[in-house]
Design goal:
By secondary structure, the chain is α/β, with parallel strands linked by helices. Helices cover 34% and strands 23% of the residues. Strands 1, 2, 3, 4, 5, 6 and 7 form a 7-stranded mixed beta sheet that branches. Strands 8-9-10 form a 3-stranded mixed beta sheet. Helix 6 packs antiparallel against helix 8. It is found in: Cytoplasm; Cell membrane.
């Protein structure tokens, strides 16, 4: 297969390589991050019970036959209230506008709510083929699923409709195969064994941020972010990683550290284990917590997250 990379077909009847971008869009908690991890077959995007956890575009890369599919997991689209919200929503629509195909993911349990209606109203302005993906189908009776699919296709003409369970993987191979067939002929953009174009520093920060959400989902507001300040490969093959967790209040700092440092130790232990799995090397992780009251208004923090700073 490697000989065919970038060949775009050729003599001897070699199969043609295909490549393209697919944007996954939807309301918060529709299951986009879970789906992209299933499609790629590895952890490339943060998954959390909390909504609005994906802050910037995360690209996951999957191979389907001779097609390379670059998935863009966009932030959930919602009614923005804060500056960070506006940056996330702008990023989501930008990712959709740049893609060859757009997959609208709808939580079948919730059906068509105000957020889905708002997305449907704007989708016709976005180029590329549009497909409908109904998620969490294992939680809804078949007649209701068919009714929901008919309603959504009545509001917008989708090229195809798929019914899946991203959590269980049901229907995901069929979806991936269909997306692979939609990609245009052309050379692959990434090496065959690469699963994401997110730098390891960013991925490591996302993993730690996910562990904060898992541990403190009811106690800590969204106003926290993680930055990888140092990544040093050591002579023995291990990596020393230093990360700073930024919060907006002194009280938030105490919550993250926990009594006797127990909370931050648990967060660090869980994050280190997952970062080791992602990097396939021994990791020494050091976490620091700092208060930065107005980080959500700091352009530099937005650049760190891969977002444009909204005026």
């Amino acid at each position: 297969m490697n000989e065919a990379l970038g060949a775009g077909g050729g003599a001897g009847g070699a199969q043609e390589t295909r490549c393209g971008f697919v944007a996954l869009i939807g309301a918060p908690n529709a299951g986009k991050s879970t789906l992209i991890n299933q499609l790629v077959g590895a952890k490339v995007s943060i998954v959390s019970r909390k909504v609005q956890t994906t802050r910037s575009l995360v690209r996951g890369i999957a191979i389907e036959g001779m097609a390379q599919i670059v998935f863009v997991d966009t932030p959930g689209i919602f009614a923005p209230k804060r500056r960070l919200d506006r940056a996330m929503v702008t990023s989501a629509w930008g990712g959709a506008g740049d893609a060859d195909a757009v997959a609208l993911l709808v939580d079948a349990r919730k059906g068509v709510d105000d957020e889905v209606e708002a997305i449907l109203a704007r989708l016709p302005q976005v180029g590329g083929a549009k497909i409908l993906v109904l998620n969490k189908i294992d939680t809804v009776e078949p007649p209701k699923l068919l009714e929901l699919a008919a309603r959504l296709n009545g509001e917008l003409s989708f090229a195809d409709t798929f019914m899946i369970s991203a959590l269980r993987g049901h229907g995901v191979p069929k979806l991936r195969a269909a997306l692979g067939a939609m990609m245009r002929p052309g050379p692959w953009l990434y090496p065959e064994d690469q699963i994401s174009d997110a730098p390891l520093r960013s991925l490591a920060a996302e993993i730690t941020r996910e562990k904060i959400f898992e541990r403190l989902h009811d106690e800590l507001p969204y106003q926290s972010t993680v930055e990888t300040e140092l990544w040093k490969d050591m002579p023995d093959g291990s990596a020393r990683i230093e990360q700073t967790i930024y919060v907006m209040r002194e009280g938030h700092k105490k919550i993250v550290i926990g009594e006797g440092g127990r909370t931050i130790k648990a967060i660090g232990s869980a994050a280190r284990k997952e970062i080791m799995e992602a990097t396939e090397q021994t990791v020494h992780l050091f976490l620091f917590v700092k208060v930065r009251e107005n980080w959500a208004d700091d352009p530099e923090r937005y650049r760190e997250m891969g977002l444009d700073f909204p005026k």
